[in-house]
Each structure stands twice: as C-alpha cells, then as structure tokens.
Amino acid sequence: MNLIVTGTVSIDTVQTPSGEEREGILGGSCTYFAAAASQYGPVRLVAAVGDDFPDEHRDTLAKFPNIDAAGLETRAGSKTFRWGGKYMDNMDERETLFTELGVLDEAPPEIPESFADSECVFLANSHPMVQMDLLSKLPKARFVVADTMDLWISIARDELKQLLGKVTGLVLNYEEAEMYAGVRNPVTAGLKMLEDGPEFVVIKKGEHGAILVHREGLAALPAYPTETVVDPTGAGDTFAGGMMAHIAKTGDTSIHGIRRAMAHGTIIASFTIESFSLDRLAGLKSDEIADRYATFSNMLALG
Amino acid sequence: MNLIVTGTVSIDTVQTPSGEEREGILGGSCTYFAAAASQYGPVRLVAAVGDDFPDEHRDTLAKFPNIDAAGLETRAGSKTFRWGGKYMDNMDERETLFTELGVLDEAPPEIPESFADSECVFLANSHPMVQMDLLSKLPKARFVVADTMDLWISIARDELKQLLGKVTGLVLNYEEAEMYAGVRNPVTAGLKMLEDGPEFVVIKKGEHGAILVHREGLAALPAYPTETVVDPTGAGDTFAGGMMAHIAKTGDTSIHGIRRAMAHGTIIASFTIESFSLDRLAGLKSDEIADRYATFSNMLALG
After folding, report:
1. Cβ of B229 under 8 Å from any chain A Cβ?
2. Does A181 touch chain B (CB under 8 A)?
3. Is B219 close to A90, i.e. CB distance below 8 A?
4. Which of A293, B38, B47, B263 has the most beta carbons within 10 angstroms of its beta carbon?
5. Using 50, 70 and 90 to split pLDDT, how confident is the model at A41?
C-alpha cells in the first residue's frame, strides 16, 4: 500500500534532565513518522512550513531517500511551527516551554495530485476537523490510523468521536485513552473507544510499551529495555511510523500483522531516543533494525 | 529443587476503588507466594502467626494440597500481623491504612527440620537481617531469591547490600530499584545492583509488567492485559510464587528459564487480582493456567 502521513514539521528546542539543550533542531510529528517509516519503504509527507524553515533541515530530510517531500508546502510570509520542551528526571514526563503555532494557525496543507492514490494513511496529531478534512482528500484511503491528544479530547470531543467513525485505528497515550473513555483501565478504555467506530486502538505507554485493543483480541508489548535514553522526543511518532510502514509493506492488516508492526515501531522508537532529532535515524542501517528486532523477538519468545 | 518460602501470613483489610471492602481476610507474602507456587508443585511455608489466627484461614490454606504448612508456627500469647490498605483509582497505587506488627516484632519463625534440605529459596520481604538469618539455616540453598521494599533501602541499606552478596536474585518494585541505585533508568538501576552480588534482578512494574536485568542480558514482559482487576493485593508475591515454582520444577536457572518463569508468574498474578485474597487461586485449574499462558505466548510471538 502507498503510505502517506499528514502532520507537522517543526523547529524544536529540547532540554533533557542531563542538562543538555538543543535549540532550533528539526522536529514535528510528520518528520519523525516519515524518518521512521522510510526505513521500511517509501512514505509521502504532507505538512506546511514557513519561509523561515532552514535549508539545513531540508537537507536533513533529503538524507532519507524514501521520503517523498513533494507535500512539504513552504508558505511565504508564514512562520514554521516551533515547540520547546523540557524533560523531567524520568524522561517520561515533559513540560512544554513554548509553542509558536505559525502555519498551524492557518489552512491545512495541500495534498499534491501525485499523492491522491494513497491507501495507507496516518493522520498525525492535529485538530480532528483538520484530520477529517485531509482524509476527505484521499479517496483511495483504506487503512487509516489517526493520532490524537488530550487537548482535542477536552475541546473537540464531538469532532474526535466523528473522526473515530472514519478511521481503521487510533493511536493515543495511556492517560488520553482513560480520559476519552472516562475509565481507569486501559483495556476497558480501548474497548469503549471501539464502540465509536475503529477496528483497533493502540495505547502508547512510553517506557512501559504499548497495548493493542482490537475487535479480535488484545495484545501488549513492553518497550525495548535500554539504558540509552538521550531525548524521547518523537518516540511516539516513530513508533507509529515503524508500525504503519510495516503494515503498508506487508499488507497484513490482521491483528497479528498489527502486533508485529507494533514490535517494529517499538524497535524504531528505541533508536530514535538514542539521540536528538533525527540524528540516530539518519544513519540507521537495516541490519541494525533486524538485529534489534531479533533480540526483542527472542526476549519475548515463550514457547 | 525443593522450594521454600519465608515471610508473612497476615490478616488483611482491603478497600478497593469500587467501594468494596473486605475485613479480616487471609493475606501475607508467604500465603500468596505459596498459593501461587502450589499450582506447579510442592512448596514449603515458613511463617509465624499468633493464637488469634482463625481456623477459617487455616482451612483455606489446607485447600492447597501442595502447600506444606509444617513451618507455620502458632505462638501462644502473640498476635498475627495485620495490614489494612486502600487502593487508589488506578489500582497501582495504594495507601497503607494500618499495620499491627504482632509476631513480626518478635523472633523470626523456626525452620522445621524436615525443611532443612530446601534448595530453591524465596525470602519474601522482611528486614534483610531476618532474611539472612533464615537463609543461614538452609545449608542446601542453591537458588535463592529475595524480595525487599523501600523501608529497608532507607533504614537498613548496609544490611540489604550484604544480603545482595548472598542471593542469586532480587525481586523489587520499579521505584525501589531506582531508589537503591540512585538512578532514574530501571536497566541502569538493575545493572548497578548486580555489582553488589546477585546474578539477576527482577524489577516489577505492576500493571506495566516486569524487567529482567541478568548478567547475561535483559528481558522485558508486559503484564497480561485484562479488564478484570478486583484486588491487586498479592500480585507481586504470586508473580514471584509462579516464577520460583516454575524454576524449582524445571531446574532451568538460565536467563531463558528465568524469563519463561517470569511469564508464568505474570499469568498467576493475573488470576490473583481477579478476586480478593486467595479466592481465585483456590479453585484454579491447571488448564486455565495453560490456556492463559498460551494466549500470552501467542500475543508475544513475533517470529
């Protein structure tokens, strides 16, 4: 299946508990997703940036030959979305230091004609109305997964519920699933969300892995255990990128296919957090992914 | 290997978020551990109770034919350890409402002569000096695992470190591992603990599963995903009971043996939390364990 991702390309400032700080680095949900997905095959990127978007970041994206950036729209007179965040001691909690919406406060990006036949769609976190608008322009979409966040559950709950009726799956954080469903058990929360339409919900738990609540059953995976956590930014988006790209590549949309795809997402995310921005993913070799996937698979083999 | 457990047999009062409360129910680390271990084979129990220990609780223990309670010492004029706890909304946090130490404030229980040849030893949570004292009376011990808690890390750190030099493995909670090691990553924390002597550390994360940090590698397992959580009391002790009993039964003390044993612990714990006290374990059938283990194993099979 042709894979497409819509979302943000941003300029980030990140502070980690070790006191390290990086200013003006390449970030954004689309960026991380596409860099991860590109390890498995082609991925189409749809996002808008302002004319302040540095050439250096364009060059970084160009290092990923599988990313088709024909959908990266540069708007004259507009500003690129900027985000600043600071991680707490445990690396699983973070504080947003600032957000400058820029292009996010304008019309959604255009989807190029050449992307119109996309079948496998990831709608990265955005207002559910924007997600539905983008989806409506992809008539061939047949495996659609959306991400969301607490903000939309609070201020756009009805629209989010409407979106759930249009997607195959939803990806969201643990606390967000419980917030949407109003219950304190992730399985119960996921099952409640299925009532609103999707075939499955993937509940992300950061360092504690992820849970799959699917119409045909449940699954759970730990995170890949590691000492190396430099910057967790993008872990969730690269998890989704590895997962969706594996599904797009294999075409296996069964619960088992999604489960294995989640394991690939887990592995890609474990590389992402080893350095800032796309630094680790840029040089990543398919052997490294295969080796770590094999280690993970052996670690979980109980038969 | 002959399996023995030392620890507490208690009378508990438990409040759950649903508003349910049970007063005076059978609890204690030894009780839960032994009830879980008994699903796999014989287990020897060493603990002290007062003469207030009800016959009804003795009858419950007697329902587990694999539990050898020759080491359950009843002290005239003493009081059984009593604990009261209240679970918060998420079932993973709890507040201790009261503790009445009773026999725990007296000399450790005696180990019967008939238990002296025990090889596989679980020292459930207790002051590390008590754990070392009990271990010193088991000359055939060759696979020894201890549990501990934040209290001993705070007030008996040196003794706990000494204990680490005498055990094969340690089982403790996530926050406790980080507290002992003074670092915020469970893998780093576990590796630091290995420097004090044990071959492995099992870090329990409640609803998020467990991590194995072993001299020969790492592993991680999720918890069994379930909607049915009535009372989490005893989950950690039954996890340890399933794990140790599986090792005692198979004799496989390799990292892979421990990993599979942890999966059995995970499954037994998932039954424990389905009801109060030993209610679910009392009627548990080996088929039920095998079925759930197979489901768990399939859920994690990535090959």
Report:
1. yes
2. no
3. no
4. B47
5. very high
Measured between CA atoms, how close is A303 to chain B, in angstroms? 6
The pLDDT, as a whole number, for residue B173 is: 95
Contact B208 A209 (CB under 8 A): yes
Contacts of B184 in chain A (CB under 8 A): 17, 89-91
Q: Over 80: is that where the pLDDT of A90 sits?
A: no
Find, in chain B, the residue whose alpha carbon is nearest to that of A303.
B297
Nearest CB to A184; choose among B90, B218, B260: B90
Q: What confidence score (pLDDT) does residue B228 get?
A: 87
Backbone angles phi and psi of B68, in degrees to 5:
-95, 105
B187 touches chain A (CB under 8 A): yes
The angle formed by the CA atoms of residues A133, A136 and A142, to the nearest 5 degrees, is 130
For residue A109, which phi and psi values (nearest 5 degrees)?
Answer: -65, 155
For residue B89, the model assigns a pLDDT of 79
Judged against a pLDDT cut of 90, whether residue B240 lies above it is answered with: yes
Cβ count near B291 (within 10 Å) = 12
pLDDT one-digit tens code per residue, B118-127: 999 999 999 9
What's the rounded mean pLDDT across residues A67-82?
97
CB contact under 8 A, B220 and A223: yes
Calculate the average pLDDT of chain A: 96
Tell me the chain A residues in contact with residue B187 when contact means C-beta distances shorter than 8 Å: 225-227
Domain definitions of chain B by residue range: 3-300
Residue A91 has pLDDT above 80, yes or no: no
Q: Which fold has domain A3-300?
A: UDP-N-acetylmuramoyl-L-alanine:D-glutamate ligase (3.40.1190)
pLDDT digits (tens, 9 = 90+) for A185-200: 999 999 999 999 999 9
Degrees, nearest 5: CA angle B180-B186-B190:
60
